[in-house]
């Protein structure tokens, strides 16, 4: 049994460490810089306090500012638990006093680790999964930047050229972005004309150049009025189009890097054999599971972490009242959801299960979440047994006249 518990309230530049014994008595409370030398000193100090007995560490962060601390604790063979900040927030209400300090939070973290037996240990993922976690997080940031840039582009175009704004889907049309790099105003498009504009787009490798040119010139002919915002607006649109084009190029390069790193993982072939999992979604799945599902103990635990296992909200005579859990990994949920959605195209078994749930009265979203939950069991078995996916036979439904 552990002799002492060390709670760490983690921060970017500094942490606060509180050590308590089996009775909850505080043995140490100290602010420590997020520096390797200082962290090694606190590990040695707490180990000395334990006097050869077991130490349990607990932290409210499992990445970011706590990354160096976690790595040092793992390297020194220390047991480390993760307590989500939400738990600490709610637990704080049961402790005396309304004040909030780093020392109090660290004291609560240590005390919760002492009393609870259901906390998840922090385990380092394999090197490939660690790399993929950073790469996929960066990819998500870039996608968010792209969405924001496209929204700004459309908003700016509405200020002076609404007909062209509604003519194209700028999130999908490369030709439309190429068009905006040089021709952003009604007058410029009318002077260019359909034939010359189509040739100009084709010379730059744009697909469907004739259709794009026709839509753009038609939009220009719909608006003869020159708005006061046109000059500045057109300049901003050209710059935003260039930004989006650069983002797209960055995404292509990043996807190549993610795919190459993912293919080095021992489970890459297994994951890609599962319908709905391409290299990017499979890489994101690895990044958020650490590359080893054994750390989740069971497929039910994995489903709970992914947010696809409904949590009961029963009380009194009310039963069967299920809701999504409040604490889950949102990136893992998104990955499982998108993979389930994609599997409807090429997996008869997934389509049959989804259709059955819809006939039972489930909404589209509910049916997909149920499918994602079912697929986690399949994934678990595949990775456990190191076998590729085998599409099960689907029994056709019998219909009655």
TrEMBL record:
Q: Which residues form the Transposase IS116/IS110/IS902 C-terminal domain?
A: 268-354
What sequence ranges are listed for the domain Transposase IS110-like N-terminal? 6-162
Task: Quote any Pfam family the record assigns.
Answer: DEDD_Tnp_IS110
Record's superkingdom? Bacteria
The protein's name in its UniProt record: IS110 family transposase
